[in-house]
Amino acid sequence: MPSSSEAARIAVDRVLCTGHGVCAQTLPGAIVLDEWGYPVLRHEAVEPEAAALAVKLCPARALYLR
Amino acid sequence: MTNIAELLETAGLTGRGGAAFSTAIKLKAARENGAELIVNACDGELGAAKDAWIVAHHLHELIDGAALVAGGRRPHIRYAAHRGSRTAGLLASAGLPVLEVPHRYVSSEETALISLAQGGLAKPMTKRAPFVFGGRDSQGRKVPPTVVLNAETVWRVSQIHRLGAEWFRSFGTSAEPGPRLVAVGGHVARPGMYEASAGVALSDLLDSAGGLPPDARHVGVGGLGGVVLTAAEARSTIWETPGMKRHGGALGPGIVTVWNPAECPIETAARMISYGAGESAGQCGPCMFGMPALAADWTDLARNPTGKGRDHLLLRLSQLERRGACAHPDGVARFAQSALRTLAPEFAAHANHACQKGHKRHAQFV
Ligand SMILES: Cc1cc2nc3c(=O)[nH]c(=O)nc-3n(C[C@H](O)[C@H](O)[C@H](O)COP(=O)(O)O)c2cc1C
Ligand code: SF4
Ligand code: SF4
Known about the structure:
The complex is a heterodimer of chains A (66) and B (366). Chain A is an alpha+beta fold. Chain A is built from two helices and five strands. The radius of gyration of chain A is 11 Å and the shape is globular. Chain B contains 16 helices and 13 strands. Chain B is globular. The complex binds flavin mononucleotide and iron/sulfur cluster (SF4) (2 copies). One iron/sulfur cluster binds at residues 106, 124, 280-284, 287-288, 324-326, 328-329 of chain B. Residues 15-19, 21, 40, 42-44, 105-106, 108-110, 148-150, 153, 326-328 of chain B line the site of flavin mononucleotide.
């Protein structure tokens, strides 16, 4: 996990999230999936570039940064 | 404007809708952003009744409070109440703009009210940032700056304005000042509305409603988003955040309910959890699937209490925390966690097939 000064804080819009689970692959370690395929955030702080890519690749546009 | 915000800060008023956030901070942000005001008089929590009481008995002070919060020359104020309720009727007869809210548990959550006020469904929205700044819903529709305050909070604003911060601080504790309405209900001789304040013994609160009956075994504090205590714990608990925190609870929206001792308490809890599962707005996966799964797990554990089943339920609860657009799953998980702990002896009795109530199912809610 990067130090908090350089880290981005990732969040999931739960209304938009359709449980595709792509984010568990784009942010391994930070995100795991529950039994239905919805993301569980293990920690919010993630490396900014990885976070930006994950936001871009979420098919439901449900990931965002805070 | 700074005067009223400063006054509220000195008084130490916090939201009476459950979350206990500083009203001064909300008011300041609302004024700075020219936010619309929604007065939440829904009494949505199980057992809640205080906001209806305020509308019935102190409507003029409520209106004064709303004007003080909103400020400005042409303040935009709406009053939210359940459709067809007596409260909605009273507000409408007073000529006030009423936001008629469908009778669902989550429809009185603040962002559900904001969505409804914008012509959308009464379903909670994702809070990417607090809506007091304005923002967008998940579909990208613009939402104007809006602040939601509980009706008791607004009523207290008018009282503080009239009687002063010192008057307000003469009630309660220094950390949690001010008078608070509490609906005491369930298995008591005189259910009704009582004025109390943080720091009173829960048993004194119950005494005002006729006392904790000798056959009472469990006392709920805070409804479906709250906790349940044994009667012995209720007798020794101080009603303030530190005292309630020890049991995983909070002051919440002012509700104390003595559970019906004629019903198996595991069934009472099951009924509440199942009701909560049915009230998921069905928008967020972890809530839509997790809540019915929780209700099913609870029923399984009631039939066949094992250590494995208990661990499974605890994992289920942890997966409901902070995983919805609103705090509904968190509230039900908190309640289930508390019931699991408090009802440990009853679960043990179920394991020995010794439940004295024979798992009776009742159709009505607490
Ligand atoms: C599921 C759910 C239901 C709620 N229902 C109510 C309600 O009926 N009345 C209320 O005042 N607050 C309710 N709240 C809390 C509101 O979202 C909000 O925090 C409150 O109205 C803010 O006012 P306050 O700062 O004056 O407490 C509910 C919250 C949740 C999660
Ligand atoms: S990739 Fe997007 S839609 Fe898919 S599970 Fe993750 S957040 Fe949800
Ligand atoms: S968490 Fe549940 S109740 Fe709240 S908005 Fe999501 S689906 Fe609806």
